[in-house]
Design brief:
The protein is of the alpha/beta class. It has helices at 12-29, 43-47, 64-75, 89-97, 132-137, 166-170, 190-200, 237-242, 253-260, 274-277, 302-315, and strands at 2-7, 32-39, 54-58, 78-84, 99-105, 174-177, 206-208, 225-227, 246-250, 265-269, 287-291. It is built from eleven helices and eleven strands.
């Protein structure tokens, strides 16, 4: 049986991409055992994905001693392949520490990571400007597999506490995730969009989720608007997004999660390149990508988003 170690501590979107690559690996391998190095913040989500058998927790703020303990723990196992999908100095050190017949790191690694990788996958035809998921898929040919996704949605174990009541899910909520890791990627008009939708879609609940966001209007009707900002654990996001009729979000990890779950998504892009970081694949009819004029998020109008909400809801009305 093929035994593989994946070193991909962060971030959320990159982890979702790597999980999809592992899903394809397992589908093509038939039998495989996959262990994963994940940052503490993301470890619960990785554990909830059945394509991973064991998770090592990496504390990015930990001491040198804690890093050494992690390296020793990894060395207790032997792998056929160890893959550094992060491509940074610390992940490369873990790759060097692992006991594996074959080791590979990213061709576009930084911080000298490439010096510690025995092998590197070729970059896609567009090189470093390729989509982030296409770059990770190039690891698969090293293992004699095709660089393509399985075609199935990514699966996660259900969280013990459902984030939304059953009656809300039955009404097909619109889930909005207003935050992003970088402030300049955040669209500031989620409150205005919410007010419009509460008026024009009175039978459809609106849910805000994520770690943070704008202040909601206290006058919005309870039961029609549900504020889960800061109240949803990361491992609950798959259930929340899976139950949505539509997901609206910035360029963010939850956007990639929605795409991996095969959910319809409106992705709002400003300063970042949607060709490299948009919901994968870019040509999927479920993926509605809106680009802000001049890359400035405040210039993306509520009217433009509303037009695409209407299209998406009509498209997914079955």
């Amino acid at each position: 049986m093929l035994r593989v170690l994946i070193i991909k501590p962060s971030s959320l979107g990159d982890i979702i991409h790597a999980l999809q690559v592992v899903q394809s690996l397992r589908a093509q391998a038939g039998e495989a055992e996959v262990h994963w190095v994940a940052a503490k913040a993301f470890a619960p989500l990785v554990r909830a994905c059945p394509v991973v058998d064991k998770v090592y927790e990496f504390d990015r703020h930990g001491s040198v001693a804690s890093f050494a303990r992690l390296a020793r723990e990894i060395r207790r196992e032997h792998y056929d392949w160890a893959l550094d999908m992060q491509g940074l100095a610390r992940s490369a050190l873990l790759l060097a520490s692992a006991r594996a017949t074959h080791k590979a790191g990213r061709a576009d690694g930084r911080e000298g990571a490439g010096l510690l990788a025995r092998r590197k996958p070729a970059l896609p035809p567009n090189g470093r400007h390729s989509h982030a998921l296409d770059i990770l898929l190039q690891f698969l040919p090293l293992l004699s597999f095709k660089p393509e996704l399985s075609g199935e949605p990514l699966e996660f174990l259900h969280s013990e506490e459902q984030p939304l009541p059953a009656d809300v899910l039955q009404r097909g909520p619109i889930v909005m995730l207003p935050d992003s890791r970088v402030a300049k990627k955040e669209w500031p008009m989620f409150p205005e969009l919410t007010a419009r939708l509460l008026k024009e879609q009175p039978n459809r609940p609106i849910v805000w989720a994520g770690s943070r966001g704008p202040e909601p209007d206290l006058a919005w009707p309870e039961g029609k608007f549900i504020n889960l900002l800061g109240r949803t654990r990361l491992e609950q996001l798959p259930d929340l997004i899976h139950g949505a009729r539509l997901v609206i979000c910035n360029d963010s990890g939850p956007m990639h999660l929605a795409a991996a779950l095969h959910q319809p998504v409106i992705a709002l892009f400003g300063p970042t390149d949607h060709e490299r970081f948009g919901p994968y694949p870019l040509n999927n009819p479920r993926h509605h990508i809106l680009r802000a004029p001049d890359g400035k998020m405040p210039q993306l109008s509520v009217d433009m988003v509303m037009i695409n909400v209407g299209k998406a809801l009509k498209q997914n009305s079955g």
